[in-house]
Description:
Layout lengths: L1 H6 L2 H18 L4 H9 L2 H10 L5 H23 L4 H22 L4 H21 L14 H17 L1 H4 L8 H9 L4 H59 L5
Amino acid sequence: MDYLKEAFGPWDWVLILVVTAMGTSMAYVHNARMKALILGLPLPFTFATLAVGMQVNSFNLSGLLLTWFFTIMVRQLHQKWKWNIFLSIILSVSFFCIAASIGTRFVPETELAFWGLIIFISISALLVVKFQKLEAEPGHKTPMPLYIKVPVIFMVVLGVILLKQELKGFVTMFPMVGVIAAYESRKSLSTMAAEIPKMILLFIPLVIIIHVSYDRLGLIGSMLAGWSVFLCILIPVTLKRIARIKSSQELA
């Protein structure tokens, strides 16, 4: 119990509330693209970063790559290979944790590594967005009952919090909402995977601002600066995408 008290700080409790709210809201959204938009909001990253209390660096970016791969892996296992969705999620989460644990030992925490990853991830996301073939998938609601959802989310976030010292910056990108989203979007995993690189391109400026302003503003100040820029990009892009969904009669 003493260990749990030490592990849990104020930001950890906020993180639990935010992830629970996001996971719950996704269950009652019909449109597959709207589900993906909610999934792409970097609120878990924000509060997980505040909970960890470390500067955003190459660990966070490496974790971003693993989160992207998590989505691809779940889709491949369940949608392409027809594996059970629960097994697909468990294997994908296990891969994230193992790869992140290895990454903390081998990924350099240097400026060169940070900016190299920024360039690599940005180019990769741009290429995927440009050349990926979109698969039309029907909207659906498959809500997990709240009496199951809330304990599951709590246990997932609890596990993340207990691992935050071990996984360091990687833990901020753990797919806390993605675990629930993968189950509840299991009939539209291609749509979810297709939206991730688009959200990554929006996310990169947030990470850059937080990183470069950390020494001057501190963690909270740099986070606020990053979000002020991020919202200026996110709001018009999101409104445009929602309008596009409505015009195509995909929004339920």
